[in-house]
Amino acid sequence: MKLEIIEEIDGEIAHFYEPCTNTTLYSVANTFFGMVNGESFKFTLSVPLKIKVLKNIRLIRRLLRFDKSSAVFNYKKDGIIILYQGTMFFYDLQSREIKIVGQLRQCRNVLHSGIAVSENGVYFGEYGHNAERESVPVWSSLDDGRSWSVIYEFGAGTIKHVHGVYLDKFTNDLWIPTGDFEGECYLVNVPQGDFDNITFFGDGTQSWRPVSLFFDEEKICWVMDSQLEDSYLQVFDRRTKKIEKGKVFPGPVWYSKEFTDNVRILATTVEIGPGSTINDANIYGSSDFSNWQLLKSFRKDFFPKRFFKFGVVSFAEGEQDSSDFVIHGEALKMLDGKILKVRIKL
What we know:
The strands form 7 sheets. Strands 14, 15, 16, 17 and 18 form a 5-stranded antiparallel β-sheet that branches. The longest helix is centred in the N-terminal third of the chain and has 7 residues, at about 60-65. The chain is mainly β. The chain is globular, with a radius of gyration of 19 Å. The chain is built from 3 helices and 29 strands.
């Protein structure tokens, strides 16, 4: 396997890319644009004057985090849910109106692909610094993104934050990984969205610290997101509820993607800590859950990680196959603030 770059696409973050329906969603700072079934749209969120002035330079956007946002199409694809600078927005694709629909408590936005969109509701949990370990809310919308309420809270002192909320296509359950440190790392099961009957799996250690998940009929897989120790592939057996350790990777893994042709990819990050062992963000590919091949490396740029971000490769939501997908990145040479259309040559 080898990853080949086809072309660069306008934009900074690729939130959604689905060639089979000609549907895309990209952003640069507070401006969002794309297509739904080939019909184009573009809108800009109203922001304070400070952001309007300072957001125009990429390096300043990185430093002040003005580039970061979360955006997803709702279930009916007649609207877009956006989290930007701590505010929740809804963009109506029919009326072309933008509305503020809520305020986050502890964060500006959540991690990419961490919002679960289903026929029964839309869900996400807050991903913030949370140094004081306050309670962490999980938000839900039962009207496809137009209004929001807190459906569950992780109690004060129990976790730092939520890494994402993911829909299990085999069971329609929600799965919520949490982090970050000893006693805070769990995989939480919400049976078909019933938050009155949740189950915590794990022992709070780094082995139970994923960001993204692969779902299979018999197992759930992830690679640890740990800058504190080596990050291993972990295979969670749905029947026994136990995990088995697999391949070790040279850094934490945040993002992964499964394609319609059964190829899977994931990317290591460049962070600060003994678990981040190289200065490259590596993309790996696999046609199963066991054997992973290095497809492409992107070197961390020379700007300090603590202020100008870790080196991260991200993937877009949407139905894609390995011959046509997109990646975007930050703090990496040749990929910082860029979206690349790529393919895997088998």
